[in-house]
Specification:
mainly beta, three-stranded antiparallel β-sheet, two-stranded antiparallel sheet, 7 strands
Length: 73
């Protein structure tokens, strides 16, 4: 019995140095998805990039860790 997961194929990741100041990022392609959606925007359709790049670049630490209060006693 075959499943939809049988149609997925994950390619090896590739390093790209296209961020500001020569920063690197990993990109990994996958076959078998109809679409990839980020923040409600289609970024890939049928395995091909749409050119849309929603979101923003996140660098370094992003503030303090969440703090959980002690139980009231």
């Amino acid at each position: 019995m075959s499943s939809n997961y049988d149609k997925l194929h994950l390619h090896p990741p590739k390093v790209h140095y296209d961020l500001p100041v020569g920063g690197r990022r990993l990109e990994q392609q996958v076959d078998g998805y109809d679409a990839t959606i980020v923040s409600g925007v289609v970024t890939q359709r049928g395995g091909k990039p749409t050119g849309a790049r929603p979101g923003k670049l996140v660098r370094g630490a992003q503030g303090s860790q969440p703090k959980f209060g002690a139980a009231a006693g």
